[in-house]
């Protein structure tokens, strides 16, 4: 499945993730040097791909390097909030109310979208809320300048040059104004924050005006999001996340992403739904975002689509949980999780785990998948409950 580059969601500020690599010229040709010569090369490539010289000129004529974009790219924030803290912050009464109101207001569009692409309204609505607060906060970076800046910069030109050429195609279609279209610092546009290549590939005219304008048209945003999520592999008619109660004698090493049993097998081990019915025949992983004493969820195959949208575990679990709330699920049972680690302690733990031979990636204080896996393995070796939640007790044991 194609992964797209994700910058911080304009409102939620989740981690930059994803990967979208297209065929491009060599690095010497595609980045750096005189900016106007670089833009001339972009125009030449765009025209060679069938785009009009006029569209390229209109797009690139006023393009400028945006130093704020480079600063943001060099100093990307890191996502270190816990699931409980983040979900409480972003799933507010305001968003629940507005989410329900928007699902009602655009019920006909959502029905059309689900009939075509199979993605339920609450799933799209949760992304709509977290990405831009239902379109209210879409970012104020000039999109062409942002893409031109990052394409010219030699850090990741293979990611951004194709996006700049896709922006030229959007200008040719009349779906982007080079002077006035704004969005996120990494070039995402509109209510659900999508990159130009994805808009070209999956953009849908939801309101029948002959254009795909994700900034202004909720109908376009809904239909386009549905088409994109279907492309990522959404399984029609299947659940994505379900809160459950777990017995305290569970073998915790069997929990976590990538370790699946059928819903029926989990139920046989004493896992019980807090709402609805467990889908007995579907594979699911048991997620414990803050260990065995905190909230617990069965994550079905459709949960993986959230990780394609954004690879931050806390963000994706929150988005998936938010969608269940919009679909009628009650507030989770918070439980009483063991205290976690602060930033310095997390880095200390990662350093120790790395010295022990575990691949935790960068020592960054983020509880990512590599750190979770290492924590779980070490917990098991030490005879501790292997629920992948790092605690001061674990750090002291090491």
UniProtKB/TrEMBL annotation:
Residues 1-28 form the signal peptide. It comes from the Bacteria. The keyword Signal applies. The keyword Phosphoprotein does not apply. InterPro entries: Lysozyme-like_dom_sf, MltB-like, MltB_2, Peptidoglycan-bd-like, PGBD-like_sf, PGBDSf, SLT_2. Keywords: Signal. Residues 343-398 form the Peptidoglycan binding-like domain. Residues 35-323 form the Transglycosylase SLT domain. Pfam families: PG_binding_1, SLT_2. This is Lytic murein transglycosylase. It comes from Roseibium sediminicola.
